[in-house]
Every structure is written in C-alpha cells, then in structure tokens.
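hey can u run this one w/ manganese (II) ion bound, need the structure tokens asap thx
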Amino acid sequence: MSSVLSQLVEELTAGRVKVVDLTQPLGPDTPVIGLPDIFASSPGVTIEQISRYDDAGPAWYWNTLSFGEHTGTHFDAPVHWITGKDLPNSSCNTLPPGRFVGPACVIDVTADVDADPDFLLTSERIEGWEAEHGRIPSGAWVLLHTGWSRRTTAEDFLNVAEDGPHSPGFDRAASEMLAHDRDVTGVGVETVGTDAGQAGGFDPPFPNHTIMHGAGKLGLASLCNLDRLPATGSIVIAAPLKIVDGSGSPLRVIALAPA
Ligand code: MN
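ok here u go:
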C-alpha cells in the first residue's frame, strides 16, 4: 500500500480525518423539481415493499424503488443536457470513475443568500474567494455553500412564487470560468438543481447546465452539511449508480475532511 493510503487509514482510525455525509435522506417526502406544465415532470419517490419477514419472504426484507434519475441528492452527468449529448463517456455508466473523486473548494455565500434567495455567484466573487484561499485547482468539486439545506419543508426548499422558483445559483460568466478557465470536475449545490430558480429566463436558459455539461462537467444537487467542510483541504467522493445510458442518479456523497 502506498504510504499516503496507509496514512489515510491511520488518520481515519485515529479520528483525525472525518467522513462527512453530504447527502439528504431519500424517501417519499423528498422534494422534486417542478417544471412548467408544457414539459414532462419527474415523479417523486415511491418505495414499495416486496417482503418483510412475512409470507412474501419469511426471512428477508427488500423493497422496489421508483423515482426519477434527478431526485434528492443526485448526480448530473454531461449527457443530461443537450449540450453534452455527443460528448464521449458522458453518461453514468461510461464516465471514468476517477472523475468521481476530487478536492473540494467550498464557497460560502450563506449571508448573501439569506439576504437574497436569487443570489448568483459571479466570476468576481470566485476571484475574491481565490484571493483568500488560492486558485481553484483543475479537477476540483466546487461546492456552493448557500445554507439552502436549512430549508426543511418542501415549500421552503422549492420556494416557488407566482413567477416561478426563487433559489440561488451561478451566473453565466461564473459557469464559463469554472468550466473553461478552471477546468473543474463539477459543481455541487444545496438547492434542487445546479441552476438558480429563475434560470429558465436567463441567457442562455439554465446557463450552468448548458455551459458545464457542454464542457463535460458534472453536477451535484441537494447537498447538505457543507458547513462541516473547510474552504479547502477536503476530498469529495461522488459516484453515481452505473445506470446504462443514465443521465444522472441519486447517490451518497461523502467528503473526507480534517476532524
Ligand atoms: Mn439534476
């Protein structure tokens, strides 16, 4: 074993490195993104029992699961968006697994989002973060810490008004900077999707999906516990189910962080 891996095991055992769960529970109460009525929508979570130590299976318990690929804490593959549809190795089963592991850069904008739920991360704001914490490295998972996971009811979490949902995200220039200039692995957010609630009306519509997936980058939505990570110095592991031609998948996202 390499010395760094044996040292990692030692650090985990000694409790000097902690495993942080960035995942929301997945169940019937999991909120699902709403789309305008002209589009097909994704169903919520259904868990149907096959047997539970009963006549249907006297010694075993198991369930049948039903949900959309983009439900709860979930992974967005590049093929999810039309801009990524022709990229090689861009679906859940073909992405190289090395891409699922990377250093985390956590950008804290909770105060901004508390003041304005439509807050957008800008490239200037990223440069400000870098002046304090160093340049975002190639292959990083950039996690937008908005505090949105504190919203525990579906109503508060989806935050839909008459003019559509209101939740934070990235502006076009920030997405272009992360995808092209910083060559990140992907972005992770606490909200239901990687674009802001109002992003259907942006130019281009849904700029984060459009730009990131067009560049082969990944997405993580509905994360939590980002307040337990340092700005830099932790590692995110986010491996989707190996769904054949899958556009995304619920997953368990964990981080290794200094205790
Ligand atoms: Mn998604």
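The pocket of manganese (II) ion is lined by residues 70, 74, 76, 193, 221, 248 (CB under 6 Å). anyway lmk if its weird
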